[in-house]
Amino acid sequence: MRICCPTRLTTKCFVSFLFAVTTLAGAANVDWILTARIAVTMDARRRVIEDAAVAVRGDRILAVGTRAAIDKEHRAAQRLDAGNALLAPGLVNTHTHAAMSLFRGIADDVRLQEWLEKFIFPAESRNVSPEFVRWGTRLACLEMLLSGTTTFTDMYYFEEVVGEVAREAGMRGVLGQTVIGFPVADAKTPAEGLARAERFLKQFDGDPLVTPAVAPHAIYTNSDATLGAARALANRHRKPLLIHLSETKKENDDVRRARGVSPARALDALGLWNGRAVAAHGVWLDDTDIEILAARGVGVAHCPASNMKLASGIAPVVKLLKAGVAVGLGPDGPAGSNNDFDLWEEMDLAGKLAKVHSGDPAALTSRQIVEMATIGGARALGLDGETGSIEPGKRADILIAALDHPRTTPFYDVYSLMVWAMKGSDVRHVMVNGKLVVRDRKPLTLDSAAILKKALEYRGSVAASLRTGR
Fold this sequence. Notes:
Distance between the termini: 69 Å
Number of helices: 17
């Protein structure tokens, strides 16, 4: 279509120009068309589409197919033609502590209990505030988005601030207000923690991006009464409960000594699994524990890097999956139990751990591992009806990663490529809820320079607090 030169805009030319714009606008029946060399849909048929395209209208996916088929049926207000690239569901992080990014690496090479009691809990008591949480979560969201994570699950303090940052970043979040049995930054008693959690649930009820949750830290940091109250609160508001479960042998042994049963069975007896729940780690689960979690529909967040780094053990992921438990992946906190938020790394480690632990190279397939990072993680969170796959009706949570690197060329199986070769740095574009939040590796919703500058400022104050004890 010819449009007149703007330097000689005659009346006839202007009318022609208006007609062209109106015609183009009228033809657009979708907001976006995204195209790439290949798409991994993770839909029920696990379709992989060559020369693929996705049509997005509003916050949802309208159609998925070949570029030719989509272009025949749809016209877009905006296009992103990625060329030699992979189009996939945004990754789903099922367990982390985002604001702890500002404590990155303050204590490595120690056991979990020592890490918590000698380093993390004291550092938190001296530094954590609403603004600390705001900037720490911004830093975490920046890192997650740039590596293609579109949904994250969080457990921390001042969780309403985490929710505000998730909205600001344009990320989807299942966010749990921590409840714990000793004084912490945002609550001096468990009762205060529960009251804060209820306010948080009400504040974000019905939010399009944030699913608020109640997060009692663990069985060993809360009384039975507090755990029961947390479950009742979550059920009353029809929201999920997040908790650490059987992370270490010490936790497992201590609970068995005190109660005569495993942590999973003790929590079952308390009714904690009577409602939507996500249990993080699950390293020391036995066969009966797994049966209980499967029967109760509890999702499990597998954190391979954290469990390896803290020498906590190896979660029985293959058994969990065979039992029908929904298993997702999580990086855990970056303060020493992992140090980054890269789910591509978690995919690689999850596969290798399962293989070496079982002695069977076929123990966990590449496709199963990609499932854990996408639709399986969404299922663990109870969000599989909304995200985790690229199919009509789902939220438009999508990553596009470049395939023009030597380590991605050539490839024969796209699942193998994703698990064993690709990195978070390959991600080029990210869409959440139908809005582009990263384009050409540039964040569109977060100020990268300001966040990094603030993180360095906090590094000084955190280091000083560790030296002086104040």
